[in-house]
Amino acid sequence: MAKFMTATVTNVRHWSDKLFSFTTTREPSLRFENGQFIMVGMDVDGRRVVRAYSIASANHEDELEFYSIKVPNGPLTSRLKEIRAGETVILSAKPTGTLVIRDLRPGRRLFMLATGTGFAPFASLIRDPEVYDRFEQVILVRGARHITDLAYGDAIVAKVREDEYMGEIVRERLVDYPTVTREPFVHTGRVTGVIESGKLFADLGIAPLDRQSDRVMICGSKAMLTDCCTMLDGRGFEVSDRIGSPGDYVIERAFVDS
Ligand code: A2P
To answer: Ligand 1 centre and the CA of 224: distance in Å?
Structure first.
């Protein structure tokens, strides 16, 4: 049986009727790579319910942060969405995952493709100094149904841009491209759609995808992952098929669906 520890919730923020984030205490022994996920759970009616959550805070920070959808009748999130500071959650002892820059071949630009709560690991990765050591430019493409769904990402990007240590490099090298699909907005279309049509590159005034020097990290729903993989495979990009085996792109399959 997997080893679990408890953590105390220190803050909860509701971004909409569907989305919330929370922070918890972090055991000094809990080590992770930015982009990894951990199992988060609660004991609900005497039963332990756990789900995979990407860690949205960076590994140099004292607390852990998580970003969650409120799934209607979801066994975990129905309870988790009610959580308040001072209560406890259960965390697995060993974070893991495939969405790590270690498994990307060297490159010049790094594209981060996220939909929905798939933004969470990028909240961590965009504040990782190593990302900017390894890549000249980071292009964060955040897809959501509605403008309100972008609020958490907006806040994180704004915070990282103002960060005392990281702010300058982030302002220079991180390009943020939020896009929505179900109402008018400055950018519209699916993450895959804006890449395939070339709209992303035209809007940003940057060169199109180049397999030689571009690397990609992807996190979203199963359907989004499948479509992004098909799109990249079709352009000759090679996926990192397992931890420790570098590729042109990495994906994360862990997401909350209950
Ligand atoms: P759409 O509104 O066209 O479904 P969700 O909340 O369902 O995960 O969706 C978040 C965002 O991801 C939405 O903008 C949605 O677009 C988009 N999306 C859903 N499926 C895919 C897919 N297969 N490829 C790319 N984007 C997708």
So the answer is: 7
Mean of all residue pLDDT scores within the chain: 95
Spatial CA neighbour of 42 closest among 8, 1, 67:
8
Whether residue 82 is found in the same domain as residue 32:
yes
184 and 62 in a single domain? The answer is no
pLDDT, tens digit, 9 for 90 and up, residues 113-167: 999 999 999 999 999 999 999 999 999 999 999 999 999 999 999 999 999 999 9
**42/107 same-domain check:** no
Full 3-state SS string of 182-247: CCCCCCECCHHHHHHCCHHHHHHCCCCCCCCCEEEEEECCHHHHHHHHHHHHHCCCCECCECCECE
Among the listed residues 213, 183, 209, 215, the one whose alpha carbon sits nearest the alpha carbon of residue 196:
209
Measured by CA distance, the residue closest to atom 8 of ligand 1 is 116
For residue 220, the ligand 1 atom closest to its alpha carbon is: 8
Beta bridge partners of 251: 218
Question: 85-105, pLDDT tens digit by residue?
Answer: 999 999 999 999 999 999 999
pTM: 0.96
Q: How far is the CA of 180 from the centre of ligand 1 (A)?
A: 9
The gap between the terminal CA atoms of the chain, to the nearest Å, is: 22
Pocket flag, ligand 1, residue 182 (CB < 6 Å):
yes
